[in-house]
Records
---
Amino acid sequence: MTDILVLSQALCGLNDGIQMRPFLPPRPKSVIQMNNSSFAKSTLDIGISDEEWERLQKALDWPGPDQQITQLDLSTNPVHSTFSIVELKKSYKVGDSISIVITARDHNKNLKTYGGDFFQAKLFNSKLKASLYGEVVDHRNGTYSFVLLLPWEGQAQVFVRLEHSSEVVQILKKYRESSFPRSHYNGHFEGPGTKNTRISEVVECNLKWGAERSLRKGKCCCEYKDIKTGTEWQCERPKKLSCDKLVGHSMGRFESPLNRFENKLFSK
């Protein structure tokens, strides 16, 4: 039976971002023996060939802006971006597919010249409560394409959503790979005071991590290590109690790593 598909178009966005070099994990090195133990693995040790490793890195690579972004209006705008169905027909058969092309534009209505935007595309029918998503292909020149299978009989709608602009994606990558502490915790200390009293102190704590495995230097802090997991913690040193008086911890404050310009890009 021939299906009559009415394809309506909608494009909306959530958040619209900083020049960053693409992050490419280093290739596993050859095994180096030292005292009968190895501290590096080769591609053979993890069960993949050099060709497969290169393919994985290519698949994980996410393009970004080809220039430093200093103006908010240069980020992708979902209102001015459009998509079109290639060679739209009046009717299709179940099992057919349709091709869609997305054209990204900035807030000045100019065509984007690089990729990296995070688009999601789906076909749906609200009455049937049916939907499916398509894989969006980034052509790295401001255009994107995807193919949707038509699996049911009746009407269907195409919906494209800009989840994040390429500029915002670069910010997310930047802080994902950084050691900036986003969550902070409270360390609770208790111990004896004078004249049979008890002293309680609450200080800020966090995981000890980062490039040098330390958030703060010197004698400012108490350090703790979980014997089972090897996780290291660091707490500010209490004013009255010693480091061995830690009795527990609780959730503290959240801290955003975004600067003023990055905050504006997220809300643009």
---
Amino acid sequence: QAFFNEEYVQAIEKKKDEEKARKLQAIIKPFVLRRTKEQVASELPSKTEQVFYCNMSEDQAAYYEKTKSAYRNDLLSSMDDGTFKKKQVQLLQGLTALRQLANHPIMIDASYESDSGKFENVIHTLDNVLKGGHKVLIFSQFVKHLGIFKNYFERESIPFAYLDGSTKNRGEIVADFQSNTELKVFLISIKAGGVGLNLTQADYVFILDPWWNPAVEQQAIDRTHRIGQEKKVFIYKFIAKDTVEEKILALQNRKKRLASSLITTEESFIKSLSKEDIREILS
């Protein structure tokens, strides 16, 4: 296992060694039959993905830049003085804080009273989709982020279903969403509801924040784009401009290209980041 990790995983994931990827693919080809969903379920309706780039509000952007500068200065100096390896926890904390700020500052600061560019963009887009009579799955990796929308829907008397890791009666909630024509919105934690659910009544999927591993997002999309779906499916990804989210999207695309040529087990994303990746993310 140590040999495989050093010879292939490190070379392919960290060094982007295409020659090693081809070599490993040749080794496993006789043993792995790879079939994409498009090959197996060719009768599925099409799906369309669109990225919405959201400008942060003025107050949100100021909060984001202040927080980014504090983390960046500390982490970059640790790269120079050799203490960076001890900063892995702080790196994760910093990136998580920046991702939450890109969504809505109230996620890390309950006293924040201003607005969020992404929240306004999502609500505006959702309003248009609901006016068209569609059903929507809304995924976030942050339960706090879902909570912001949950509070909004309750204030506006918009019926919605909700599922996160603490939800007990998943089957009942899913069945209600599938059969209840008045229930148009389903808020779902991507960690809890990304697999095992059949939600083919929905034809729109909102991904509120990018996940490190693009395969996790794909699993969420597959809750509705699966056998039994009769309508075209539209996937909207909301990305806060000039934030770490744009950098995550770029890293995702790199990983997608790798995954298309090779099936590999991904290591912890944070641990796989090179110093160059981190400098880019915090730039």
